């Protein structure tokens, strides 16, 4: 997410898909909260965690309000996914952690994702 915000700030433009995506993301603040929770109450096994509120480009654009955005039509995003799948799929494919598997959701942690996106500065 940091790389994406850095790219948006350098380009002074947000290129977002016309049909929005939904992705599970985790920001620095949420990561720190989960680590603090685990220090106080150790957990065994694999932990899957993401911000309880999923990432969408529309909400990220709203959080970064000062940057203009352009919507990329589906043929453009499909071409990027075909030509460079490693980048295209990271940018334009849905990837969502269901609530039942989300450690943050299970422990009642509040969303911090868009606060982190709004506050991020990588100039």
Q: Approximately how much helix is present in the residues?
A: 40-55%
Q: Numbering strands along the chain, what is their spatial order in the largest sheet?
A: 1-2
- Tell the overall outline: globular
The largest sheet, given as strand count, sense and whether it forms a barrel, is: 2 strands, parallel
The DSSP helix count reads 7
User: How confident overall, as mean pLDDT?
Assistant: 86
The H/E string reads: HEHHEHHHH
**Span between termini:** 15 Å
Q: Based on the structure, what is the oligomeric state of the protein chains?
A: single chain
Instruction: Round the Cα radius of gyration to an integer and report it.
Output: 16 Å
Please state the structural category: mainly alpha
Spans of at least 5 consecutive residues with low confidence: none
How many beta-strand runs? 2
What proportion of the residues form beta strands (DSSP E)?
A: 5-15%
